[in-house]
Every structure is written in C-alpha cells, then in structure tokens.
Amino acid sequence: MTVPTIKILALYKFVDQPDFETLKAPLAAFCCARGIRGTLLLAPEGINGTVAGTPGAIDELVAWLSDGNIFGGRFRGAEVKYSFADTQPFHRMKVRLKAEIVTLRAPEANPGRQVGTYVDPQDWNDLIGRDDVVVIDTRNDYEVALGTFRNAKDPQTSRFTEFKDYVSEALDPQKHKKIAMFCTGGIRCEKASSYMLAQGFEEVFHLKGGILNYLEQVPEDKSLWDGECFVFDERVSVRHRLEIGDAQLCRACRQPLTPADREREDFIEGVQCHHCAGEENASKRAAAAERQRQIELAVARGEAHMGEDVRKAAEERRMASKARREADRVRNRKG
C-alpha cells in the first residue's frame, strides 16, 4: 500500500484582526520556503483556506500559526482538518486579503459574537431525524448535486450571499423553531447560524467540522450521507474516510460530473457535458477542445499538464448556474 506523500490542511478561525494586511507577506514567505501550495485568505474577521505540502511542512505551518510571535496566539485553536493525497493538488501558493473570509455581506452575522449550537458527527443523525427540525444544506447548487444528507433542503444558491434571500423567502422564525445546517468544513455554517440567530430564529444547530468531519468519523453503514462531497481542489470530491471520489470536472463549464454524467451521450471527454452541450456554449467547448488536445500532447510527451485554477472554476460554475436558473424562470413565466 502506497503511503500518501502530501498532507492537505483546511483551516479557519474567526478572530478580530485589524492588522490583517501586515500578515500577508510573512505568511506567504513561510509557506513558499517550505514548498507549501494552496490559498489562504486573511480578513479583519479571521483566516480561512486550504493548503498542501509535505507532512513536516504542514505541521510546521500549524505550529507557527498557533505559537508564532507575529500572530500572538490569535490562531491558536483554529478549526483544522487534515486529509492526504499522492500528488500535490495545488499549483501555486497564494495569500489573499479579503473583506470577509466567507462572503455573506451581512454585518449582523458575527461569529465572534454569536453562533449556533455545535453538533458532533456522532449526534448528527439523531438530530436530523427529528420531525421538528428543518435540515438545510448551506452549500451552492453544484455542490449539492454531488451529494447531501437525506431529506435536507437545497436552497439552490449559486453563491453564499444568496443564502440571505433563501432565509427571507423560505423560512419563518415563528414557524421554523429548530434549524440544523451543514456545509463542507463548517465555516459557512458559522456565518449562516450567526445570521439566522440575528434574524430571530431561536434554535440553530450546525454540524461541527462539517461534512468532511462527518465522513471521516461516522461509519459508512451508519451514515445518512448520500453521494460524494465536493472539495475545492483537484480531487474534486471525497467520500467516506475522505477517500478521493469519482467526480471529475467538465473542462468547458467546470461543473462536477458523476460517473453516470460521463456516460451520457452528450458527454465528450475534455470538451463538453450535458450542462453545456447547447449552442450557446460553443466558444467554451472550442476552448476546452483545444485544452484537451494540449493535455493529450503533453501526456504523449510524458509531461505534466497544469490543471485549471479551482477557484476560477468555481466562479465559472456559479455564473453558469445563475444563467440556467434565470433561463428556467423565463421559461416558467412564458408557460
């Protein structure tokens, strides 16, 4: 059995840091000096990101974030999640300055002031099995399409800022007394639960450590999770025990595709899928076809070919998803 050589770290912590801009250069330098790649976000409200490197390098980074003098212990106790891979899933190291580490654009959502009640993975099944609990998947639609918890509600959002609209349109604090929510690693639920408490919802629960923590800790034969969990790196998806899943990205529209999706007649490897097979996506398909040709040439030469920037891919998926929903609304009005 091959021992994975790459350790992947996902971390976040909400903490007030008005000096966040001063941390960018030393954080980037520390990571680059150790061959760590990925993306870390810094904002006045904290830190968030996913990076990968050798196990020793990642352990050094975690220790430095916790105890390094430059941080003054502010990141000690951050929520961290580890996974492993045989190859480096990222192509470069980026430290970005942002207004928020999770963009919701709702000042009343302040996880430093209030958040919902954390629920351990071992207790999650009992909670979401109750009739008086509304279970909400706070992720975006293309993520939900790959997998979700049984009976969970899909807000059908293309970006997290749309979650506010879903709450105002579909939920009522007087009617929906108990809310249970989940996301990939837990960070979106920190913001979402804080927002909902600010809107007057009485009891708001969220899965501690998110789906990834659940898939790692809960045995598959006792799991209420169906499908795979989308992740923002070249693994595309993971399943129980955080094993790499079967999903792949469409190179034209960047939608994640299941094996069944790739069996459809309109799927062409590296060129198109059923999401983008229409004429309106001809230019994207042409670009994808050229990219696929370059990949095949690189493989024939025995060279590696760099994959796409995953966060750019996420933005393109969001725009494509939004366009599809708008087209659906137009068709429904005409009908």
Can you summarize this structure?
With about 325 residues, the protein is α/β, with parallel strands linked by helices. Helix content is about 30%, strand content about 20%. The protein has helices spanning about 25-35, 55-65, 120-130, 140-145, 165-170, 185-200, 210-215, 280-300, 310-335; strands spanning about 5-15, 35-45, 45-55, 80-85, 95, 115-120, 135, 145-150, 180, 205, 225, 230, 235-240, 250, 255.
Folded structure, characterized:
Strand 12 and strand 13 (237-238) form a beta hairpin. The chain has helices at 24-33, 55-67, 121-128, 141-144, 163-170, 187-198, 210-217, 282-300, 310-334, and strands at 6-14, 37-43, 46-53, 79-85, 93-97, 117-119, 133-137, 147-149, 178-182, 203-207, 225-227, 229-230, 237-238, 248-249, 256-257. The protein has a 5-stranded mixed β-sheet. The protein is α/β, with parallel strands linked by helices. 38% of the residues are buried. It folds into 4 domains: 6-97, Alpha-Beta Plaits, CATH 3.30.70.100; 117-227, Rhodanese-like domain (Oxidized Rhodanese, domain 1, 3-Layer(aba) Sandwich); 249-302, no CATH class; 309-334.
